[in-house]
Amino acid sequence: MRRGLLTLAVLGGLGLAGAAAIVGFGLYNVSAQVGHLPGVSWVLHTTFRNSVSLRAPAPEEVPPLDDPDLIALGAGHYATACAMCHGALGELQSATARAMVPAPPPINEAVAHWEANELHWIVENGAKMTGMPAWPAEARGDEVWAVVAFLKSIKRDTAPRMPSPTLTGTAYCQSCHGDIGGPVPRLDIQSAEYLEAQLIAYLTGDRPSGIMAQAATRVPEDSFAELAEAFSNKPAAPVLDPVPGEGPGAALARAGTRDVPACLACHGGQQPSKGPRLFGQNEAYLLAQLKLWRDGTLDHDALMAAAARDLTTEDIKTLSRYFAGVGR
């Protein structure tokens, strides 16, 4: 027994000495041209697959992913944030991407053997030592589903055409805030001052969003005012004057306390004096944003955080329908 322990101790010491020599003298060749030692790739890939399967959200947590607007939003983000490595459908990856170790697989191969919940975990968390980054904003797993929806459409061979990654300025912004509804907010109903402030908040991270953080870094900061002016002044889709309703949505919107004013105190009318305009906004967008405020993910405005803190999921649905339906 004692001899066996001594042998293990000696072997352990030799192993540590060998590892120290490899690290200290740079004996391990880290060149990407020579790749990994035999068997290492299998170990890393198997570890990666098992790690994802262990940590991915439960399959029942996967939301519906067949909404064309959600898929289009994911396609737009993929075009500028992911295609540089995984390539566009039907196009050869760049020589630089193919020279990486490990090389990022072409997107149709990358999604082939993963389920939606697993793809969500990979996109949200990234993977160490692969060049695959985590989602740019923490606690915004809700946004990741847009990319997963696009990836699933690739698996179904129904993926829409991606916008060109070379778009700039208003054309780049228009690819989402003009051509996509649902989870993408209308900008034409907001003031230029509000839109510029939000662009700055996305850029600095004060308002967390992986999609908008990516978008805000794609346009020069000194063009924010010009972009905000362009979208606030674009011809708007008709929005009727709010109709004073008597239903549950109207009652919730009018409810307030001494510490927290009613929704309509800040967001009422066609030209609200404090917060952004909500009447006529996309219902899916309102629903998502109110949940983020309620859950504390968004907290850059203390008054709004307090107003949303006690909302139930049913309250949020009711308010979203009310404002999207212009008070009806």
- What is the CATH C level class of the largest domain, in words? Mainly Alpha
Compute the CA-based radius of gyration. Answer: 25 Å
Sequence of secondary-structure elements = HHHHHHHHHHHHHHHHH
Mean pLDDT: 91
- Looking at CATH, the homologous superfamily of the largest domain is Cytochrome c-like domain
How many structural domains are formed by the residues?
3
CATH topology of the largest domain: Cytochrome Bc1 Complex, Chain D, domain 2
Brief summary of the model shown:
With 328 residues, the protein is mainly α. It has helices spanning 2-24, 40-55, 68-81, 83-86, 95-98, 107-110, 116-125, 141-155, 169-174, 192-204, 210-216, 224-232, 248-254, 263-267, 283-294, 302-308, 313-324. The protein has three domains: 43-155, Cytochrome Bc1 Complex, Chain D, domain 2 (Orthogonal Bundle); 169-232, Cytochrome c-like domain (Cytochrome Bc1 Complex, Chain D, domain 2); 248-324, Cytochrome c-like domain (Cytochrome Bc1 Complex, Chain D, domain 2, Orthogonal Bundle).
